[in-house]
Amino acid sequence: MARGLLESEGIEAEVFDEYTIAVQPLYSTALGGVKLVVLERDVGQALDILREQRAEATAYDEEKLGRCPRCESVRIGDNPLRFGIILLAIVTLGIAWLLLYRKYRCEECGHSW
Questions:
Q1: Helix (H) or strand (E) run with residue 7 in it
Q2: In the 8-state DSSP scheme, what is residue 33?
């Protein structure tokens, strides 16, 4: 994806070791991971483009997830008791529709909704 993004901006880019790691994932550490290579003269511009894309993706993720209705924080996660409550309900009552139950918990203020 990074290569396609850079090429759409007119920067030549190559990806190395992607197929080797796809076939042998354990080689990833030895090879240093998948490598995205650009010409030396384009490094600064390529980094700027990739940083901008990352910032946009992060902003999108925060917007998509939403905010806490109490404190407006974006640090939201699943309620840690959700799985236990659902499992207990299924085992004791046999109510499978509780799997659709969704509850969030704010990591800042602890509010659940």
A1: helix 2-8
A2: S
